[in-house]
Amino acid sequence: MENKPLITIAFDGFSSSGKSTMAKSLAKKIGYAYIDTGAMYRAVTLYCIENNLFDGQDLDTSELERQMDRIHITFRVNSEGKSETYLNGKNVEKEIRLMPVSSKVSIVAAVPFVRRALVKQQQEMGKGKGIVMDGRDIGTVVFPDAEMKVYVNASPETRARRRYDELQAKGDTSVTYEDVYKNVCERDYIDSHREENPLRKADDAIELDNSNMTIGEQDEWLLNLYESIINKLRK
Ligand code: DC
């Protein structure tokens, strides 16, 4: 097999933009590891809920700071080859995708010491390159030197519809499309207006609006971009 240079690939964008599907699919095709950094913020949020650090939407940040080093997040590949999130040794992959976590995760993701701890862990995971990482601040903060940066966009309606369909498929029938749409808009606002590492497109990121693209079209677009970057690096 020909030897291709290993690179770092950063995917950023709003929630439910389809980032993870395309990032995962690209990683699989090119044999790279895939890291979903949103899952890490979600796992910390689940920890906060389970340990009563929330009073409604109020988070006890001093207590969370004291407990931060008790939170261990890892990823393990299951028998179907899918990466799953573990919180202190427990598989939480399903729970972290449900509404109780979704409705509080932006609050946790805005806490500076939480971001610092997770960013450090993410940089450690990607230091050998050959990684596809998806999140909000990957191209701007975690890996500002990534060779390939993609900023994914899609309308809030398209994204809410996707998240709603996903929840339905998982059997969560307690939420309406309107609930999901509201949650998507709220998170968009918090994620792009927070002080610490807000979501923004890196100057050198390539924008992809996939509102009207099929999965096949997205995959092809990404593979072409990856190949063209690799070819440039070889020259
Ligand atoms: O991608 P997602 O919807 O699973 O992300 C969950 C939340 O975590 C979302 O509100 C934004 C936040 N997040 C972040 O602030 N930085 C990241 N690198 C990834 C996610």
Layout of secondary structure:
Elements: E1 8-13, H1 19-30, E2 33-36, H2 37-50, E3 54-55, E4 58-59, H3 61-67, E5 73-77, E6 83-87, E7 90-91, H4 99-102, H5 105-109, H6 112-125, E8 131-135, H7 138-142, E9 148-153, H8 156-169, H9 177-193, E10 206-209, H10 215-234
Parallel strand pairs: 1-8, 1-9, 2-8, 9-10
Antiparallel strand pairs: 3-4, 5-6, 6-7
The chain binds 2'-deoxycytidine-5'-monophosphate (DC).
Protein name: Cytidylate kinase
InterPro entries: Cytidylate_kin, Cytidylate_kinase_dom, P-loop_NTPase
Catalytic activity: CMP + ATP = CDP + ADP; dCMP + ATP = dCDP + ADP
Task: Provide tags for this entry.
alpha/beta; 3-stranded antiparallel β-sheet; 10 helices; transferase; ATP binding
Descriptive report:
48% of the residues lie in helices and 17% in strands. It is built from 10 helices and 10 strands. Strand 5 and strand 6 (83-87) form a beta hairpin. Helix 1 packs across helix 10 (215-234), helix 2 (37-50) crosses helix 6 and helix 8 packs across helix 9. The mean pLDDT is 93. 2'-deoxycytidine-5'-monophosphate binds next to helix 2, helix 5 and helix 9.
| Cross-sheet strand order for the largest sheet | 2-8-1-9-10
Please trace the helix and strand order, writing H or E for each element: EHEHEEHEEEHHHEHEHHEH
Rg (CA only): 17 Å
Query: How large is the count of helical segments?
Result: 10
| Mean of residue pLDDT values | 93
Q: What percentage of amino acids are in beta strands? A: 15-25%
Note the overall shape: globular
Bound molecules: 2'-deoxycytidine-5'-monophosphate
Distance between the termini: 19 Å
SS-based class: alpha/beta
* Main pleated-sheet profile: 5 strands, parallel
Helix content: 40-55%
Count every beta strand, where a strand is a DSSP E run of 2 or more residues: 10
**Poorly predicted regions:** none
Binding site for ATP: 13-21
GO cellular component, one term: cytosol
Subcellular location: Cytoplasm
GO molecular function: ATP binding; dCMP kinase activity
